[in-house]
């Protein structure tokens, strides 16, 4: 692989960084916006648990209690479906991210698909379980205010209103 300029941007290892992502204005306030977007999304998933819980309740009644075992994994299922359809969708942002005017981008310029969106969220939760909120400290020292899971997956969160 040759290192140098390409039509799409600059080749860095295996990542192709688009020139349009070099604008520092895209990253102003992104860290704070990500935190508030997370809180909004967490509330939305909590609200989505209500109808999902009713469905599991009814399923449990129909299966003489066997369906109630789904309550143990209901939150991850609802959260994964939410992330798959929103972050992995056309706008590349969850509802919380849209409210905060940010979106997820891949450094190679390709669109974010549902699988990458889910892996991104799973890496976030895994890193958060190990490092607690200290994962935000990584964004203080990286270019483009990227967090640990962004670095691992070749993604970046940018302002959508600029």
Account of the 3D structure:
The protein has helices at 30-62, 74-86, 95-99, 114-131, 135-141, 148-153, and strands spanning 9-12, 15-18, 102-106, 155-159. By secondary structure, it is mainly α. 51% of the residues lie in helices and 11% in strands.
Q: How would you summarize this macromolecular structure in one to three sentences?
A:
The protein has 162 residues and is mainly alpha-helical. 51% of the residues lie in helices and 11% in strands.
Write the layout of secondary structure elements.
Layout (H helix, E strand, L loop, with lengths): L8 E4 L2 E4 L11 H33 L11 H13 L8 H5 L2 E5 L7 H18 L3 H7 L6 H6 L1 E5 L3
Antiparallel strand pairs: 1-2, 3-4
Spatial ordering of strands, largest sheet:
1-2
Return the average pLDDT rounded to an integer: 87
Low-confidence stretches: 1-12
Total helical elements:
6
Overall SS class: mainly alpha
Number of strands: 4
Helix content: 40-55%
The coarse silhouette is elongated
Pattern of helices and strands: EEHHHEHHHE
What is the oligomeric state here? Answer: single chain
| Distance linking N and C termini | 33 Å
Question: Which key features would you list for this structure?
Answer:
162 residues, 6 helices, two-stranded antiparallel ribbon, 51% helix, mainly alpha, 11% strand, 4 strands, disordered N terminus
């Amino acid at each position: 692989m040759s290192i140098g300029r390409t039509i799409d941007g600059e080749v860095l290892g295996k990542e192709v960084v688009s020139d349009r992502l070099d604008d520092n204005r895209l990253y102003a306030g992104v860290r704070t916006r990500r935190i508030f977007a997370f809180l909004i999304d967490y509330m939305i998933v909590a609200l989505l648990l209500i109808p999902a819980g009713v469905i599991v309740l009814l399923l449990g009644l129909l299966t003489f209690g066997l369906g109630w075992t789904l309550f143990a994994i209901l939150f991850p299922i609802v959260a994964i479906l939410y992330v798959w359809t929103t972050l992995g969708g056309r706008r590349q942002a969850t509802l919380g991210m849209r409210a905060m005017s940010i979106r997820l981008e891949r450094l190679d310029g390709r669109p974010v698909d549902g699988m990458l969106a889910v892996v991104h969220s799973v890496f976030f939760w895994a890193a958060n379980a190990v490092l607690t909120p200290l994962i935000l400290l990584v964004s203080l020292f990286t270019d483009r205010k990227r967090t640990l899971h962004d670095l691992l997956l070749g993604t970046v969160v940018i302002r959508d209103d600029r």
